[in-house]
Amino acid sequence: MEKYLRENFDVEAKRPSEEALRRWRCAVSVVKNPRRRFRMVADLAKRAEAERKRKKLQEKIRVALYVQKAALHFIDAVNRVEYKLSNDVKEAGFCVGPDELASIVRSHDSKALGSHGGVEGLARHISVSLNDGIVSTDVSTRQNIYGLNQHAEKPSRSFWMFVWEALHDLTLIILMMCAVISIGVGIATEGWPKGMYDGLGIILCIFLVVIVTAVSDYKQSLQFKVLDKEKKNVLVQVTREGCRQRVSIYDLVVGDIVHLSIGDVVPADGVLISGHSLSVDESSLSGESEPVDVNKKRPFLLSGTKVQDGYGKMLVTAVGMRTEWGRLMATLSETGEDETPLQVKLNGVATIIGKIGLAFAVMTFLVLMGRFLVVKAQHQELTKWSTTDALQVLNFFAIAVTIIVVAVPEGLPLAVTLSLAFAMKKLMRDKALVRHLSACETMGSATCICTDKTGTLTTNHMVVNKIWICEETKLITRKEDVLSSISKEVQRILLQSIFQNTASEVAKGKDGKTNILGTPTETAIVEFGLHMGGDFNVHRKESEIVKVEPFNSVKKKMSVLVSLPNKNGFRAFCKGASEIILKMCDKIIAKDGKPMKMSQEQRKKITSVIDDFACQALRTLCLAFKDIEKPDCIPEDNYTLVAVVGIKDPVRPGVKEAVKTCLEAGIIVRIVTGDNINTAKAIARECGILTDDGIAIEGPDFRDKSPQEMEEIIPKLQVMARSSPSDKHKLVTQLRNVFKEVVAVTGDGTNDAPALAQADIGLAMGIAGTEVAKESADVIIMDDNFTTIVNVGRWGRSVYINIQKFVQFQLTVNVVALMINFISACVSGDAPLTTVQLLWVNLIMDTLGALALATEPPNDALMKRPPIGRNVYFITKLMWRNIIGQSIFQIVVLVILQFNGKRLLKLTGSDATDILNTFIFNTFVFCQVFNEINSRDMVKINVFERVLDSWVFLGVMFSTVSFQIVMVELLGAFADTVPLSWDLWLASVLIGAASLVVAAVLKCIPVQTGQDHQVAKGHDGYEPLPSGPDMA
To answer: Which of 232, 286, 824, 1027 has a 20 to 30 Å separation from 182 between CA atoms?
Structure first.
């Protein structure tokens, strides 16, 4: 089975090949309801068509954006559209209509923008202040006139659509036809109403199956709809009523002032108000990979493009379906997400079992028909056929079809979807947003987590704790501690270095309080400047910014060039990673504020200060400046060092315990950070990541290593400091390709996108992460907390184990149902389980079984076992032991009851056969109920542990038993049952409960795991846990 599954049903979790996707689709057969089975499977034909449409649209947009020929300008001038203002626009107090406004940006029409008076004129025409933004009370008016920031989407399916889909099951359709014929023939032979009971019972049971299936599928779809909306809900920084605030992308309106920075996705069409070094990647729209500079000459920004560099403010001019992005999104059909490896594998399992079931159904029908014809031949009645005979043949056919219903486990692949939907919903509550279904599965196999330090292991609540200035180290408690020992000139230069060279802003919030907006590091430094008595706005107005080089993770510094007051030349400010800035400096600021030459001894002392700060787990930055005469470019050397700043960022509570949990689970944790190596090592030791024999290395050293050296270093590598995004990408590639590890990687910056995409599981930070990083990630950690990452791993393991539990349970029911009907048909010429009873069993093991077992919450024991390997057998020897053992027990019990039940149960009288058949049916159901309880744990004997934590499981158990009582005691006419006495009920329950004892005995039989647990050994030498009686 495993060989067949690997050859035909093996796909990669990320970016599976087209060939693999087509191969498994071709291999699938014996599908009862393709519409339901493949609802969550991508339509490759539609996907190809969508890709063709996308490329065609991109080409049109590319031509519109980049072909700026005189002829086109001439044609445009001749055919310029005359826009007229509608009454609605006039009454709302606006001077430009939505179509005209949208066309200005869409066609990059500089002439039209100029005719409206540029950005300022356009702002006046749509009644907005470029400083204060729109008034909140105008939002609904602007939405009515200019539209909502949403693109057209396919309407969600109603509940009745799921009912209709469930009714497309071919076997159920055949059974409905059989039921209708049965009713007709039954009434003709047995009269009204007795003749309709058999057929009506089948119809009612089909109705129950359809409704339960539809309810389950509908609830799943609602969960995915909520998750999908959450995935698309981006928070955007805007200014409204003079206050900076974050609003949902869906609430964005024309006239909003949007603030953009590196890594943001432009949320709507608009024009640039102001900005520095702003460049955007328009490849998502045009297919062109070259970044486009946005400035006063070319101020147009298109929705869906990504900010690659710089920052700026834009005025929103078009939203939703009036943007090119909205049109593109609406044109592309929803083609579905790539199916997960487990879904594909279980489609393969369902195919194999379906073929076996189909063979058994045909054999059962042939045996039943053969025996029936032999009996007729013995009575010389082969040529004499009555309606009763026809009804009997119809019943044989219905039983054969029902065996196919039971045997083809349609619910197996869908159980994965159910389990993933449940896990994703719970994870969203636990601050983890899963963007791709497969990530939830893959996280259960993770053998290594490469995590950032700042904000993930630490709190991200940064404060300046120490400062080295004028050759003295100061602990920051009161501002007098610093100001008392430095001159006014030094103080002025320090505050200039802080306020001039920052991407942060000091703005007033809704509550009237002053808020600092920016990265935690920037915020900490600006907050320190304010604490020192500085005024952000005063210092910003002193000088005009000429050039800006925004911070990026490659250069690890930020620079700005400003003009000095009274035309006294220009001053460049630079700040960033301590050792990088220190190399750029050849002078230090003296106590009188004058630059003085830096001696070699002073350089060593400063390096010692940096190392001392770092060893105290402080994040270190250097501030420097340089005066120049001409503003040609921002200089790269000969700076004057102003100060070394030590920023405190304490370790998050619970991180140490989370790291310990990872190590116990066989998951290696590595820190990959851009910070100083001593800071990283101090934090790593505090978290329990860096051990005595572990290696800490800097990014530049790592990238210079040969492949052989990397192979020696990586197994013991625990900290990589001063790393660039390319170093992180290289490490991930080595871990995956050379060491065959399943790697989870965290990232927050735009440049982290390649590493996030390359990793098996990309984890983007929800608070500190850019939108570009989030788009490349598989999971978004909403609270940036390492503990949440561990929780994702716990749920990933839970999904995998839950599906194994369900498969074990369903295969046992399949084997027993097939064998008991076939054996009985061969021996007695009749099937002990009727069509209605088999349909009920199918409901128990399919939809209800999936609900009960696939939604079990994770427990701590999951993190005490090693990760699930890349190429392990899905149906393990452990599972086969349980399936075969339980199947033999149930078949033996049911066969004994079938052929010797009357004597054992001392049944006499005319209704003895009916009582026995009912008892067999009841015992069979209770065997499944208790086997479902057994399946809660495939290894441990105590299967009732934490059962009260799973209310879904308890609910399904209660519902199953309750309906079984109703079916036996009250619905006998429809279900072919008769009421049972209390002692027979007790006997049924006890026989079913005996499967608990059988399971306990089976779990004491040791199993050689072999290939079942292929896991990578970590630096802690973690080995797979044993199974067998000692584990029990």
So the answer is: 824
